Amino acid sequence: MAAVSGLMRRPLEQVSGLLRRRFHRTASAALQVTVREAINQGMDEELERDEKVFLLGEEVAQYDGAYKVSRGLWKKYGDKRIIDTPISEMGFAGIAVGAAMAGLRPICEFMTFNFSMQAIDQVINSAAKTYYMSGGHQPVPIVFRGPNGASAGVAAQHSQCFAAWYGHCPGLKVVSPWNSEDAKGLIKSAIRDDNPVVVLENELMYGVPFEFPSEAQSKDFLIPIGKAKIERQGTHITVVAHSRPVGHCLEAATVLSKEGIECEVINMRSIRPMDIETIEASVMKTNHLITVEGGWPQFGVGAEVCARIMEGPAFNFLDAPAVRVTGADVPMPYAKILEDNSIPQVKDIIFAIKKTLNI
Amino acid sequence: MRKMLAAVSRVLSGVAQKPASRVLVASRNFANDATFEIKKCDLHRLEEGPPVTTVLTREDGLRYYRMMQTVRRMELKADQLYKQKIIRGFCHLCDGQEACCVGLEAGINPTDHLITAYRAHGFTFTRGLSVREILAELTGRRGGCAKGKGGSMHMYAKNFYGGNGIVGAQVPLGAGIALACKYNGKDEVCLTLYGDGAANQGQIFEAYNMAALWKLPCVFICENNRYGMGTSVERAAASTDYYKRGDFIPGLRVDGMDILCVREATRFAAAYCRSGKGPILMELQTYRYHGHSMSDPGVSYRTREEIQEVRSKSDPIMLLKDRMVNSNLASVEELKEIDVEVRKEIEDAAQFATADPEPPLEELGYHIYSSDPPFEVRGANQWIKFKSIS
C-alpha cells in the first residue's frame, strides 16, 4: 500500500501528456490502484486544488471513513475541511446543501445510500430543483457520494440500489463508476461540477485493484459526466451495464468468446445524463441488446434504456426484443444462497445473451 | 454607512425619491429621534437580553414605516390578484407580520444571510427585490424574479435563499449557510426562520445539535403566528415555549408585533453569534391576518373576534405610526403621503405584473444545470424537445 502511494506521488505525474504517452509505450507503467484508493486520490486532489471543497459525513474524519475511503484526509486537512457529523442524515445533508448555496463545494457522504432516504428531500427538493426554481439564480455545487446497492450479507435494509430513484430527477446528475479509473475521473468531475451530483459507489468494488492508465495519474484527469465507455468491442450483441455488473458482463463476454460470440460491453458510467447515443450506435451495429443492473427490475435503469432504444433509430436494427437482467424483485434476503440468487450472476447474463441471440 | 445603504436600497427598490427641499422643510419641524421603551424579552439560558429602551431616528422610522406599508399593501394586492385568478397555486400572505421582516432586516447587514419558508414575500422585499419583480413572479411572468419558474414559494435574492416549500427543510439549509459564514471567516450570520408548525420537525433538532456542536453563527428564528395552518400551537406542541425548544441553545422570546423590539432583539442575537458563541434562538410572537394561504378563509379554527382584536390593539404599522406621531418624529399627513406613494408603487407593480408576458415556451427547459453547455430536454412526448441552457 505504501509503495503504491509512493508511486502515485512521483514527479512523473507532472510531465505533459505527450511525454507520458511516450513513457507508457517504452516503460509500461502497470500501476495497480484499488477503487478505494482512486476515490481517495480524487478527493485529496480536489481538496488540495480548491479551498472551498470540504467533506462531511459520519465517520469520515477520525475513523478514516466507515469503508476507509477517506483515509488520511483528516490528518492532512484537519477539522475545518473534513467534518465528522452526528447521525443526522436529514440535518447534515441539508447543512451541506445550504453550504453549497452559500458558495462552498461540499462533498456529502452517506455511509450507504440506504441512509440517504432519510435525507432524500434535501437531495431532491433543496438541491436538485433549486437552480430551475430560482430561474437560474441559485446554483448548488454539491456532491453526494457513498456506497450504493447490494453488499454481502447485509440484508434488505442495507442493500437497495438508488440509481433509478435518483436518475429519475431532473436537476441532478447521477454517476455510477465501475473501476478505479471511473472512480477517480468521475469523483473529480463531480466535485468540479457546479450542479448536484450523486456518485453511486459500490462497497464490493472498493478493494478491487485495476490497472491505472497513465492519464489517470494526472491531477487534472477528469471523466466527462454523461459519456459511456465501450469496455469491450464486439459484433454480436450489445451488453449495457453500470457499476459492479460491468465486471460480470466482461466475465460473461470472455466465456462467450470461446463459443464464438463477441459481446460489446458498454460501461454506462453516467445514469443521468444517460449516453444513449453510444448505446444506439452499438445496437445499430450488433442488432441485439441486453441491459444488466443490480437494482430491481420495475422502473429501473434497464427499463429506461429499453424505452429510449424503442424511441430512437436503433429500434429498427433490433433483431430481437431488448432484454433486462436485474436484481430479483424481492427485498434482499440474508442467507447466502438466497442473496446470491437475488443479484445478477455471470450465468444469468450468459443465459440472457444466448436467449436474445436465440442460441 | 447604513444611511447610504438605505438610500441605495431605496433607489434599487424603485421607490420615488422625495425632492430634497421637501425633506429639509419637513425635518425642521420634527424631532430627530426619540427614545422608546420596549418590552423585555423572556430569556432562556441567557443572563442578559436586549435593551429595554431604544432610540429611533426619524429617518429610520420613516423608512420602516414605508417598508412595512409596502409589504402590507403588496400582500393585499396579491390577495386581490389571487381572487381575480391572476395569481395561481399557493399564495401565503404575511400581512400582520410586517414587523418581523422589516425589524429583522433592520437588525442585520445586507451582507448577512437570511432564509425562510414559504410565507416569504415580505422577506423577499426586505432583502432587496422590488415589488414589481415579486408580483410578476406571483403572476408567473418573465419579469418575475425567478423568471416565472418558481412562483410564490421560490424567490431568491442576494444573500436571500428563498422561499422554501418543504416545511422545516430550510432550517438545516440555514445552518449550512451559517457553516459557510464561519468557514469563510467573514463575521456574517445567517437568520434561519421557521414557523410554529415547523418547530416540531425533527430535522430542526438535528440542525440545533450540529449548530451548537460546531458553534455556527446561526440565529434560529421561530416566527410564531399561533397557527400551523389550522392547528393552534396548543394542539401541535407539547411545549409552546418555542424559544426554549433549542434546549442547550440560549433563546429569547420577542414581541413580534413591535418592530423596535424585533430590531433590538435581532441586533442582540446577531452580535451574540458574531462573537463566536454559537447559535441562538429567537421566538417572534406575531400574527397573520389572512388564513394559512389564499385557499383558507382562516376562520374555521380561530374567531373573527380574535383577528379583530389583534388588528385593533397590536397592528405593527399602527404601533409604529402612533409612536412616531406622538413623539413628533413624523406627522399624520406625512405618513399619509407615504401611504399614497406606496399605493401608487404597488399599483404600478401590479400593472406590470398583469401586463408582462408569460415566459417564452422555448425557455421551459432552461436552468436545469448551471454552467453547462446547451442540451436537449424531453417534453411531453419523444418528439417534443426543449433546449436547455444554463
SSE diagram, text form:
The complex is a heterodimer of chains A (359) and B (390).
Chain A: H1 2-8, H2 17-26, E1 31-34, H3 35-49, E2 53-57, H4 73-77, E3 82-84, H5 89-101, E4 105-109, H6 113-128, H7 130-133, E5 143-147, H8 163-167, E6 173-175, H9 180-192, E7 197-201, E8 209-212, E9 229-232, E10 237-241, H10 245-257, E11 263-267, E12 270-272, H11 276-286, E13 289-292, H12 301-311, E14 323-325, H13 336-340, H14 346-356
Parallel strand pairs in A: 2-3, 2-4, 4-5, 5-7, 6-7, 10-11, 10-13, 13-14
Antiparallel strand pairs in A: 1-8, 6-12, 9-11
Chain B: H1 2-12, H2 20-28, E1 33-37, E2 42-44, E3 53-57, H3 58-83, H4 98-107, E4 113-115, H5 121-126, H6 131-138, H7 170-184, E5 190-195, H8 202-213, E6 218-224, E7 227-228, E8 231-232, H9 233-236, E9 251-255, H10 259-274, E10 280-285, H11 304-314, H12 316-326, H13 332-355, E11 375-378, E12 385-388
Parallel strand pairs in B: 4-5, 5-6, 6-10, 9-10
Antiparallel strand pairs in B: 1-3, 2-9, 7-8, 11-12
Helix pairs in contact in B: 3-4, 3-12, 3-13, 4-10, 6-13, 7-8
Pfam families (chain B): E1_dh
EC number (chain B): 1.2.4.1
Subcellular location (chain B): Mitochondrion matrix
Summarize this entry quickly:
The complex is a heterodimer of chains A (359) and B (390). By secondary structure, chain A is of the alpha/beta class.
Keywords for this entry:
heterodimer; A: Rossmann fold; Rossmann fold; seven-stranded mixed beta sheet; five-stranded mixed beta sheet; 14 helices; disordered N terminus; B: 390 residues; alpha/beta; six-stranded mixed beta sheet; two-stranded antiparallel ribbon; 13 helices; 12 strands; globular; carbohydrate metabolism (chain A); pyruvate (chain A); Pyruvate dehydrogenase E1 component subunit beta (chain A); Transketolase-like_Pyr-bd (chain A)
